[in-house]
Each structure stands twice: as structure tokens, then as C-alpha cells.
Write a structure and sequence with these properties.
This protein has six helices and six strands; from the N terminus they run E-H-E-E-E-H-H-E-H-H-E-H. The protein is an alpha/beta fold. The chain has one domain: Flavodoxin domain (Rossmann fold, 3-Layer(aba) Sandwich), CATH 3.40.50.360. Strands 1, 2, 3, 4, 5 and 6 form a six-stranded mixed β-sheet that branches. Bound molecules: flavin mononucleotide.
């Protein structure tokens, strides 16, 4: 079965997760960064995995746009979703709906992959937001 993983990321966690899935899989998997290309067709693939990270309650707009544009095609695929977020509880599970209610309902696998924080890459406001989220 043909599989594609499409991800969006700001600082690299979701990209790392996509790479880990690809490296662990026994079949060949195509990995695509939607921040770099929006012109990707999922048509040839049987399975599609969508992964994004969350900033201030939202996934990257590139993923939102892609999901809206390709919704009908994605609904014909075996679909997996993953989220990288600081919240691993109720709010985290809610973020999985940010791909769209229909895609969320259709997906056979929905996972929270946790988070990484690259403090060196964050600006002052981002560090402040992160400290509030992490309550540290
Ligand atoms: C400024 C900022 C805002 C964030 N907002 C949220 C949030 O609203 N909810 C959450 O659960 N995690 C939040 N996080 C945590 C990120 O989702 C987490 O660090 C994730 O691993 C980042 O993934 P990326 O490197 O693929 O972009 C935030 C992180 C930063 C730096």
C-alpha cells in the first residue's frame, strides 16, 4: 500500500515525528513538508497521514488550507492524524479536530505525539507563552 505523510511545523518537532514514522515503516513512505509545497496530490496514495503542531490553539494555516482544498479526496483514503502539542490531555485531543470535523471523524488513527521545545529558537513572546502553557 502506498503511504504519504504530509506535515506542517514551525520549529521541527512534527517533521521529526514524520521522519520517525518513515524510518520505522517497512514500506516506502513519501514524506512531504506542506510549508514548502501546497501542490501535492494525494490521489495516487491509499493511506495518508497528516501531522501538525499547535501554536496558540491553532495548527499551521498551510495545513488548514490543504485540508479544506483536498477534503473530498482525503475522505477516500485510509487516514491518520497526529498532533504535536504541549497539552497531552483533553485540549490536546481537541486539537486533533483542527484538521476538520469530517476528516477527524473519518480518520482511523488519531494520536498526540507530545512536544519538544527549542528554547533557543523562541523569541521573547514565545518563551513567555510557553512558560504559561507549561506553568513553569
Ligand atoms: C509560542 C508557542 C505557543 C504554543 N501554543 C501551544 C498551544 O496553544 N497549545 C499546546 O498544546 N501547545 C502549544 N505550544 C507547544 C508546541 O505545540 C510544541 O512545542 C510543539 O512541539 C511544536 O512543534 P513544531 O516544532 O513542529 O512546531 C506552543 C509553543 C510555543 C513556542
Amino acid at each position: 500500500m502506498n503511504t504519504a505523510i504530509l506535515f506542517t511545523t514551525k520549529h521541527g518537532t512534527a517533521a521529526k515525528c514524520a521522519g520517525i514514522i518513515r524510518d520505522k515503516a517497512e514500506e516506502k513512505i513519501e514524506v512531504v513538508n506542506l510549508m514548502e509545497t501546497q501542490d501535492f496530490s494525494v490521489e495516487p496514495f491509499d493511506k495518508v497521514i497528516l501531522g501538525s503542531s499547535v501554536y496558540v490553539g491553532k495548527i499551521q494555516p498551510e495545513m488548514t488550507v490543504f485540508c479544506k482544498k483536498n477534503k473530498q479526496e482525503l475522505l477516500t483514503k485510509e487516514l491518520g492524524l497526529f498532533i504535536c502539542s504541549g497539552d497531552h490531555g483533553e485540549a490536546g485531543r481537541g486539537y486533533l479536530k483542527l484538521f476538520g470535523e469530517e476528516l477527524h471523524k473519518h480518520a482511523v488513527s488519531k494520536k498526540l505525539f507530545g512536544d519538544e521545545i527549542y528554547w533557543g529558537k523562541l523569541n521573547f513572546m514565545e518563551k513567555l507563552a510557553m512558560r504559561i502553557i507549561k506553568k513553569t
